[in-house]
């Protein structure tokens, strides 16, 4: 157990022993046709992932928006705690905007992958 090494790769602390330069800089230029198929599969997986996250962002925006409307209703219905409900409404409305921005970001990430797929298709000429 003590001989096992735990690999923790963080944003700026990567393992210097691993050489990923070929994977990054040589993408799309391989003599092995299986690599091209694998790259296309990875792009499809990534596009599906961003689409999924886009839908999660949309759901979050809708849920937060609905809760903001509820808090607005509560502020009118409960004048004794109206100030509290208005503050909660504004907080949740800000969360709805953030979730909407996240969905918008993921939508553009998905579109960027689709754009790369089209560029990749144009690069390869199929003779048959």
TrEMBL record:
InterPro entries: ABA_WDS (IPR003496). Residues 108-120 have a biased composition (Basic and acidic residues). Residues 1-32, 108-128 are annotated as: Disordered. Signal peptide: none annotated. Residues 1-13 have a biased composition (Basic residues). It comes from the Eukaryota. Belongs to the abscisic acid and water stress-induced protein family. PANTHER family: ABSCISIC STRESS-RIPENING PROTEIN 5, OS04G0423400 PROTEIN. This is Abscisic stress ripening. It comes from Ficus carica. The lineage of its organism: Eukaryota, Viridiplantae, Streptophyta, Embryophyta, Tracheophyta.
């Amino acid at each position: 157990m003590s001989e096992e090494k735990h690999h923790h790769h963080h944003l700026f602390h990567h393992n210097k022993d691993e050489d990923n330069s070929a994977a990054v800089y040589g993408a799309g230029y391989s003599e092995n046709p299986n690599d091209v198929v694998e790259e296309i599969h990875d792009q499809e997986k990534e596009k599906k992932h961003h689409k999924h996250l886009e839908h999660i962002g949309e759901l979050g925006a809708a849920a937060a928006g609905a809760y903001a409307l509820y808090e607005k209703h509560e502020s009118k219905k409960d004048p004794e705690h109206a100030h509290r409900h208005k503050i909660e409404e504004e907080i949740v409305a800000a969360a709805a905007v953030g979730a909407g921005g996240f969905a918008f970001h993921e939508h553009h990430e998905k579109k960027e992958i689709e754009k790369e797929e089209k560029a990749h298709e144009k690069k390869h000429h199929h003779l048959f």
